[in-house]
């Protein structure tokens, strides 16, 4: 229980802009039960940062000087698809969690 609270507290530090309810939502480890996950076409990505801005769980980092410039923390990604929906280049697709791709 204490470890879980520490995890929530640590995760909440990153997500503090969203308020207490969203912080708990964002801090829930969803890696084991998410149905879909985002897959990025790095060649089409223009590194605009829109996905990072709209992700409600705040788990996307755009690292502009890397070829694979989008890093997603899949321990906490909810599979909601908002990043895919908001991407102006449509270079994020949602794929079934258990697929190979
Ligand atoms: S919104 Fe799309 S184009 Fe913009 S950084 Fe994210 S993946 Fe790349
Ligand atoms: S699927 Fe949802 S939670 Fe996961 S990275 Fe995209 S916007 Fe964030």
Automatic annotation (TrEMBL):
GO MF term set: 4 iron, 4 sulfur cluster binding; metal ion binding; oxidoreductase activity, acting on the aldehyde or oxo group of donors, iron-sulfur protein as acceptor
Keyword field: 4Fe-4S, Iron, Iron-sulfur, Metal-binding, Repeat
Record-linked Pfam families: Fer4_21
Cofactor: [4Fe-4S] cluster
Database matches in PROSITE patterns: 4FE4S_FER_1, 4FE4S_FER_2
Domain 4Fe-4S ferredoxin-type: 36-65, 68-97
Domain of life: Bacteria
Cross-referenced PANTHER family: PYRUVATE SYNTHASE SUBUNIT PORD
Protein name listed in UniProt: 4Fe-4S binding protein
Organism placement in taxonomy: Bacteria, Bacillati, Bacillota, Clostridia, Eubacteriales
């Amino acid at each position: 229980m204490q470890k879980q609270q520490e995890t929530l507290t640590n995760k909440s530090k990153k997500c503090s802009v969203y308020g207490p309810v969203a912080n708990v939502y964002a801090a829930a480890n969803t890696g084991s039960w998410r149905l879909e996950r985002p897959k990025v076409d790095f060649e089409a990505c223009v590194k605009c940062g829109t996905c990072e801005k709209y992700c409600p769980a705040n788990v996307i980092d755009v690292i502009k000087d890397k070829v694979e410039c989008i890093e997603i923390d899949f321990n906490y990604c909810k599979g909601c698809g908002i990043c895919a929906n908001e991407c102006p280049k449509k270079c994020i697709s949602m794929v079934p969690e258990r697929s190979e791709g």
